[in-house]
Amino acid sequence: MSRYFTFALLATGLLSGCAMVRVSSLGPEQYIAMRRGDILSTGRLSAATRDTLRVAALDEGSCQRTPQECIDSITSVPGINVDRRLASLAELSLQMAIAQTPNNNAAWSDAQFDLWLRTARYAYAFLFLGQRTAGERAFEDRQTQVRDYYNYAVQELAGALFQRGALETDSVDGDPGTRFIAGWTVHIDLSRVRLPEGVRELREVIPASRLSFAGLRSIYRRDGLGAELVAVMNIPAPAAAASSASSASDADAEAIPGATSWSTLPARPFSEMPSPNVTVLLGFNAENLEQLRDAHDVVLTVYDPYREENVVRHGQTVPLAANFSAGYGIWLARSGFAGQSLRNLFGRARAIDSPRIYLMQPFDPQRRIVLMLHGLASSPEAWVNVANDIQGDEILRQHFQVWQVYYPTNVPILVSLARIRRAARRTLAHFDPEGTLPASQGMVLIGHSMGGVLARLLVSTSNEELWTTFQNKYVPDGTELDRTDERLNRLLSFTPMPQVERAIFIAAPHRGTPFASNRIARWASNLVRLPLALLHEFEDVMQTATNNESGQTEGQTFHVPNSIEQLRETDPLIQATAQLPISPKVCFHSIIARRRATGPLEDSDDGAVPYRSAHIAGAVSEKVIVSGHSVQETPQAILEIRRILHQDIADVDRDSESGLSVGCHRRPTPPAGAVYRPFSAGDRQPKNQGHSLALHHSVPAG
Q1: 3-class DSSP state for residue 244?
Q2: Is position 6 within any domain?
Q3: Keywords in UniProt for this one (predicted)?
Q4: Structural domain includes residue 66
Q5: Which domain holds residue 53?
């Protein structure tokens, strides 16, 4: 009986034609894959597009074999709303473009250009001319997917146009003009981006999305519309640029005839970022979907993401995509600074012989300057994460632009000071001859190690003590210096840079360090070779700036100390410079490292610089961090730098609103011999938690 019953049930089910519906649960990994997986992320069409194919009675497999037929069918089949249709067409077109464009860097055919331009057009239609605005779809996964289709298509098109030579910059007003490709008219617009001066061609156009960096802790981006690219320029590498520049004639009216070392500089002692970050958009000249369907006229516009945050398309304001780290990372990775910095110290071949100032973005007249100075045997690589985090901080990026000084670290400190001062002055004068732009006001100096000593001297005033010390150290008894000698005046007479309003000194040996006198330092010092031009000039200056009529100095050889020797605690010049007064108009801060959290602060050191040398009375703030000498690399130090810069912005805004130049609020300078306690009352001694543990802001007693 049961056998007949079972047979009857089966027969009834077959005759009724009912399908069996089953349900299953999805885990968290399938949740994202189902909602957001698409042709870019998984290599398979998205669930939304597959649903559209089913509505149109199309098969996914057949669409992979003959995608154009599916595109034509979806274009005409009824019953699919406009947004859904356009999004599916964009993804199907992208699938076809990827499949028919081999990834071998070969130049594209006209057919391939046509495929990618059509993809961008479908995506553009969905984003701006669909049923709803981008704002109405703001929380939809589908809008994010289609935005990515558009951005990716523009990214690939920009690279292919570069290969075809369509992005050449050697043209009138920087506008490469118009190209005719595959029945399309492509207008190239570079008017919204400023390329480095003198650039005539691009070397590479690199998608930022394809780059991965070791050494950069964070990659800073801004989500939005457009392809994030790095435009690599044909600019000489740092060594070649410095070498050729050092032989250039000095255009400064103060140049001394015959002088070749500290009294002359290249006519252009600066370089703009050779790999700026740019964002590219592709726009279509159409007012509605009907016009856009047949549009073959497009404009490829290149933007500077530092200057523009939003764009307006069809009455809608949308954020402009940006990558603020990729160009900086490429520059550092290709700079060769690591090896060259040691050649600079020891004076070997292919070392630089004069300072250069590198602009980390195209010059912006409205943003103030953060000028960074590295330390001994170092280079701009010392600031890799500091500069990246400043440029990645949205508020700081709106107010500041980063410049970095790269200088030979073997020469005497006062020579480096004179050169850097003039290089900074000449760079500012090049971009702002009148000195009236916001960029020329309110500069912030940040110096690490010996760079901190130089930063301090850039905001200090020399005095009679410096001349006296120099005479006692270098001039024989009974011989007087000629103080009218211009080259000596460049070294021994200086005033604070008027553009600077704040400075941050990091692990700076203001009073020298005993570590510069130990066996290893003395051995390294003996290996340092100073440039022959500098030695000859020093001898010439000493012969002409002293009373040589008596013949006392004729034929005498003067010892020129290198930078390591001058950092010894016993060096008379470092002792004299440590006493020079800092401008009362400059707010200054100290960041100091100590190797261990325990023990008296006054007796601590960072392995190279003792606390007693790095500490300066009267600082607005002093941050002590458990770290080695390279403390500027630690997250705690970077956080403190950012705090100071944010406070600086607040102070400037306060002064601007009040109409008064209030300046910073310094702690009173304590009397000589005052003891500085490491913790405020009630603070507990923190345990040593390893490298880079921030301890405190020390407060002067009384």
Answers
A1: helix
A2: no
A3: Signal
A4: yes
A5: 33-163
